[in-house]
Write a structure and sequence with these properties.
heterodimer; A: about 270 residues; mainly alpha; MetI-like fold; 12 helices; about 75% helix; globular; B: about 270 residues
């Protein structure tokens, strides 16, 4: 009796696992084998790997995601480092989290105003003697805005791993005559590597699929894997091809996860 | 890390990055009070865009839709997610537990586009019309794993002797659950509920895929308006949403701190 009751109790979660986790992934793989006329075929994969367009797009997309991740990491690491040394660090890290609670679309929209022809950034350029530049709708603006949005997600895991380092390690290293830079190099960076890895994981994968940003900020010039999926599903209605790109996206996600997974048990670092 | 030892250069760097993080948001909100209609020139303070916003019936309806979806989906996902956390926690073998956790995290790490596209295929295959229900179901679906992850740490902290003691004293399964387990993991459940709300309010891509015509949430509406260019009504909206998220954060941290304070008292 109790066993049956238990089973009943867990049913909703199992239903969720089956219907919303396993079935959708299965369906996307299944659809990737159908062409636009709903015939079973491998043509989608042939198009993807045969034509240069898709491969170049994939390479571009990976390159963009790589640059976004790199910029976010370069800005976030010192940021996390300095925050972890502040007196009221819990408060300051809360200030880092706060912008993530504001809708992504609103932040993107703010940049449309900031980067436009007569926007604030161009006015600052004029102060320094540069003429107004076309900033909005370029690849650079896409990368910078994406990096801006991802920075808090990069800071958090690094910050968490920094605060885990016991201060006695730092003191010991100083007592043994290490300079600040040596301590950073030999103690802090190696010990925060798991944080960096999960940061990269959290930032890189979404960066492959930021289609709203490439539309609003990149001006449709940047085509990422995500843009292509959206295009095929909602505009050209070629779900088969969209699913094929989706499968490629899933595979690259698994690769990134495998590369950045630490062997030790991972702590949950998103929040 | 050693606290309170930030160098001058470090402080300057912090100020710089914080400025970078907040300038776009402040910029957006300041211009919501602009008399003019562009984000280029500030011509004077006025509340005209807020008046516009509050008389825009369509946008208000969308706002209410968004809140309704967020609340309903969070309540459901909190229920199911808590059950899921109990299931993961009760798994006897390590392997089973790891499999559950692995399956649980799939939706957390998948790109939004994939979740959206696969849900779209799924709903179409089922013949479910796109609209309110498809959006609600999708939101419930992608919020469940985060609830599980927020509840699990509390379950891990709970010592099994508490449950055993309750059983020894003759409590039924239901009594153990409602009197011992649920109160103990309550902070985790509340944290999960709040995370679910923010996930729902923040989502754009998944909703964009499964929303069809007719039904819209705020993110989708902002996207389609932003594609047409600047309208300071969106700025006014962002001002309101900023205050809304500030309230959410404050409430969340108040609850969090209170439960932590309680825990400290209990430990002492």
């Amino acid at each position: 009796m109790t066993k049956q009751l238990k089973a009943l109790f867990y049913t909703p979660y199992f239903v969720w696992l089956g219907l919303f986790v396993i079935a959708p992934v299965g369906l996307i793989v299944y659809y990737s084998f159908f062409n636009i006329n709903h015939q079973l075929t491998l043509a989608n994969y042939q198009t993807f790997f045969g034509s240069g367009t898709y491969l170049i797009m994939t390479a571009n997309s990976v390159l963009y995601a790589f640059l976004i991740t790199l910029i976010a990491l370069l800005i976030s690491y010192p940021m996390a480092y300095y925050i972890s040394k502040l007196k009221h660090r819990d408060f300051w890290i809360l200030l880092v989290i706060l912008p993530t609670w504001i809708n992504l679309l609103l932040k993107a929209y703010a940049f449309i105003g900031l980067l436009s022809q007569d926007g604030l950034v161009n006015k600052c350029f004029e102060l320094f003697g540069f003429g107004p530049q076309q900033i909005l709708f370029t690849n650079t603006s896409f990368i910078l805005v994406a990096a801006y949005i991802e920075i808090p997600f990069m800071i958090l895991p690094i910050y968490n791993s920094l605060t885990d380092i016991s201060s006695s390690y730092i003191r010991a290293s100083h007592d043994l005559g290490a300079t600040t830079w040596q301590t950073i190099q030999k103690i802090i960076i190696p010990m925060t590597l798991p944080g960096v890895k999960s940061g990269v994981q959290i930032v890189f994968i979404p960066s492959l699929s930021l289609f709203m940003l490439s539309r609003l900020i990149g001006g449709n010039k940047v085509i990422t894997l995500g843009t292509a999926v959206e295009e095929h599903f909602l505009t050209t209605m070629n779900w088969g091809m969209g699913s094929t790109i989706g499968v490629v996206l899933i595979i690259s996600m698994v690769v990134v996860m495998a590369l950045t997974n630490t062997k030790k048990k991972r702590r949950q670092t998103i929040w | 890390m050693v606290k309170g030892t930030t160098s001058k250069m470090g402080k300057m760097y912090l100020v710089l990055v914080f400025l970078l993080l907040y300038i776009p948001i402040v910029f957006l909100i300041i211009y919501s009070f602009n008399q003019g209609t562009t984000m280029d020139k500030f011509t004077g303070w006025s509340m005209v865009h807020y008046q516009e916003l509050f008389s825009d019936k369509r946008l208000l309806a969308i706002f209410l839709n968004t809140i309704l979806i967020a609340l309903l989906s969070s309540v459901f996902s909190t229920f199911v997610g808590t059950m899921g956390a109990l299931l993961v926690d009760n798994a006897k073998r390590r392997r089973t537990k790891e499999t559950y956790l692995y399956l649980n995290s799939i939706l957390l790490v998948s790109p939004d586009v994939i979740i959206g596209a696969s849900f779209l295929i799924f709903f179409t295959a089922l013949g479910l019309p796109l609209g309110f229900w498809s959006v609600l179901l999708s939101h419930i679906a992608f919020e469940i794993p985060i609830v599980v992850l927020m509840v699990l740490p509390r379950l891990n902290e709970m010592s099994s002797s508490m449950v055993n003691a309750a059983r020894d004293l003759g409590a039924s399964n239901w009594q153990t659950m409602s009197q011992i387990v649920i109160p103990f993991i309550q902070p985790g459940i509340i944290a999960g509920f709040f995370m679910a709300i923010t996930y729902s309010l923040d989502d754009f891509a998944v909703t964009f895929f499964v929303t069809g015509n007719g039904f819209t949430t705020l993110s989708v509406e902002i996207y389609s308006r932003a594609r047409q260019g600047i309208s300071l009504e969106i700025n006014a909206l962002s001002g309101i949403m900023f205050i809304f998220s500030l309230i959410l954060v404050t409430v969340y941290y108040f609850i969090e701190n209170r439960s932590q304070g309680k825990r400290k008292v209990m430990e002492a």
